[in-house]
Amino acid sequence: MNFAIWLERIAALQGDAPALCLGAQTVENYAAFQAKAAAVGGALVAQGIQPGDRVAVFAKNVPEYLIAWYGIWRTGGVIVPINAKLHPREAAFILEDAGATMAFVTSDVEGDLAKLTNIPLINLNADAFTLMTQAPPAPLVHREASDLAWLFYTSGTTGRPKGVRITYGMLQAMSLNYIAEVDAVNAEDGVLYAAPISHAAGIYNMVHVLRGTRHVFPTSGGFDAAEVLALAQSCGPLSVFMAPTMVRRFTDVAAAKDFALSVDGRINSDFERVSWGVAFRAEAEWESLFLLSLNNDGTYAFWAVQLMAG
């Protein structure tokens, strides 16, 4: 078991299909995504990474994030995504607590973090990472369902961030059940990473790799309600994870742009009271919008929404 197998398989089946997009522009197809991830894995192995080693990513949402992610997994390594909105001191704590051996970063955080840690930092925006994507590919390392895949750190709002162990088996069950119970995920679909990919937004990446859909990264590198609205209109069917405050901002912008939004009344009560996030899917030409509320107790609620130009 290894999710890098899903990437390898879909690249063999539909290598020319768009994979990684920056805004509406495709920057890598699945063949290139797979080749670069395998090469990054090879470079990591050459630098001493072994199965079970923890490799962190402290970066804003950029297409290179997923290349590094699947490169780490290909080696059997454990990914430790860190929210780019955290202070570098918080990121340094997570690096130490997780026992990370190295970290991928983006330019906006590299300088400050370098002052707080001694582990190697690899800038996803720099030539060093480009060279990694050209290295000889790593062999794919098999992992067991009980093996650690993702060390997920909480936000730390009630104290120090805490590492949550997520295994391959857990992520596989979640991904396959998403298809069975939430959304079929078709090849023409896409997933938009408007919320930090290090957190709940990234949980959806595996099922979209499995299905060979587009992974769309906003050019802003984060959440801008008007940008999300424009991308969903121009990029076809998209699924997006949003926190409740993001949904509120999104619906406000949609209303201001003369889109009529109509949802079940529970969106203003149960949703705000118990939900920690929402995933939505926008159909082509805004014929419909589907909201999935993920609740703190593990349950979820599902709404069909109409969103039409006024």
Protein architecture, described:
The structure is a single chain. The chain is an alpha/beta fold. It has 2 domains: 3-16 and 29-167, Rossmann fold (3-Layer(aba) Sandwich); 180-309, no CATH class. It is 36% helix and 26% strand. The protein contains 11 helices and 15 strands. The strands form 3 sheets. The protein has a 9-stranded mixed beta sheet. Strands 4-3-5-6 form a 4-stranded parallel beta sheet, sandwiched between helices. A hairpin with a 2-residue loop joins strand 1 and strand 2. Helix 2 (30-46) crosses helix 3 and helix 9 packs across helix 10. The longest helix has 17 residues, at 30-46. Residues 260-278, 282-289 and 293-310 have low confidence and may be disordered.
Helix share, percent: 25-40%
Instruction: State the major sheet.
Output: 9 strands, mixed
Count of separate structural domains: 2
CATH topology of the largest domain: Rossmann fold
What class, by secondary structure content? Answer: alpha/beta
CATH class category name of the largest domain: Alpha Beta
Q: How far apart, in Å, are the first and last alpha carbons?
A: 49 Å
Spatially, the strands of the biggest sheet line up as 2-1-10-9-11-13-14-15-12
- Please tell me the CATH architecture of the largest domain by its name: 3-Layer(aba) Sandwich
Mean pLDDT, nearest integer?
83
Poorly predicted segments: 260-278, 282-289, 293-310
The share of residues in extended strands comes to 25-35%
Rough outline: globular
